[in-house]
Write a structure and sequence with these properties.
Layout: H1 3-50, E1 56-65, E2 68-77, E3 80-91, E4 96-104, E5 109-116, H2 130-133, E6 146-147, E7 155-156, H3 162-184
Parallel strand pairs: 6-7
Antiparallel strand pairs: 1-2, 2-3, 3-4, 4-5
C-alpha cells in the first residue's frame, strides 16, 4: 500500500465521519425542540392529575436535592391557593427516584406520582403502583416512616423492596414536605430537611 492509497482511505473516512456528524447534528436540531415540547406537555398533564380541581398550576421556583434540579408549583383555583406540588428525588436501590408530591394548604399529602426510576423490575418498580402510592393520601410529614408490617398510620414497605420504599417515603417525600414547610409556612415546624 502506497502513501497515496493511505491518504485516499483517510480522506474517505474523514468525509464519511463529517457527513455522519452533520446528519446527526441536523437530526438533533430538528428533534430536540419537539422532545422538549412533549416533555413539557407530559409534565403539565402529570401536574394536573395531582390536583385536578385547580384552574392553574404555576411554577413557583426551583430547588436542589441530592445535587439534582427540582421544581415546585402552586395550584390555584381563581385567586385561591388549593395546594402545592413539589418535585423531589430519593436515593433508591439502583437509581434516584423522581417523584411529584401534591399537598393541600395544611401540608397534608393529596397524592404522589413516581415520574421515573430504574429500580428492579418486579420488585422496586412497584413504587409506581397505586397499591403503594395510595398509602400517602392524607398523611403528614410525621407519618413518613416505612414499616415492614401492616400499618394505616405510616407507609407499609413493598415486600422485597424496602430500600425503594424508603427512598420514596423517607427521602423524596419527607424532604419535599420539609422544603414546602420551610418555603410556605415560614420555617419548618416539623423537623429539618437534609438535602
Amino acid at each position: 500500500m502506497t502513501n497515496k492509497d493511505i491518504l485516499k482511505i483517510t480522506l474517505n473516512l474523514v468525509t464519511i465521519y463529517v457527513i455522519g456528524g452533520l446528519i446527526l447534528a441536523g437530526v438533533y436540531a430538528t428533534t430536540s425542540p419537539m422532545i422538549f415540547k412533549n416533555n413539557e406537555k407530559a409534565k403539565q398533564e402529570a401536574l394536573k392529575k395531582l390536583i385536578p380541581e385547580a384552574d392553574s398550576i404555576v411554577k413557583a421556583g426551583d430547588w436542589t436535592i441530592h445535587d439534582k434540579h427540582a421544581e415546585y408549583y402552586e395550584a390555584k383555583k381563581g385567586s385561591d391557593t388549593l395546594g402545592y406540588i413539589v418535585q423531589s428525588f430519593g436515593k433508591g436501590y439502583s437509581s434516584y427516584i423522581n417523584t411529584l408530591i401534591a399537598v393541600d394548604k395544611d401540608m397534608k399529602i393529596k397524592k404522589i406520582n413516581v415520574l421515573s426510576h430504574a429500580e428492579t423490575p418486579g420488585l422496586g418498580d412497584e413504587i409506581e403502583y397505586d397499591s403503594f402510592t395510595d398509602q400517602f393520601k392524607g398523611k403528614s410529614r410525621e407519618q413518613m416512616k416505612v414499616l415492614k408490617t401492616e400499618t394505616k398510620d405510616y407507609v407499609q414497605a413493598i415486600s422485597g423492596a424496602t430500600i425503594s420504599s424508603r427512598a420514596v417515603t423517607e427521602d423524596a417525600v419527607k424532604n419535599g414536605l420539609d422544603f414546602l414547610n420551610e418555603k410556605y409556612k415560614g420555617g419548618d415546624r416539623n423537623g429539618s430537611a437534609s438535602r
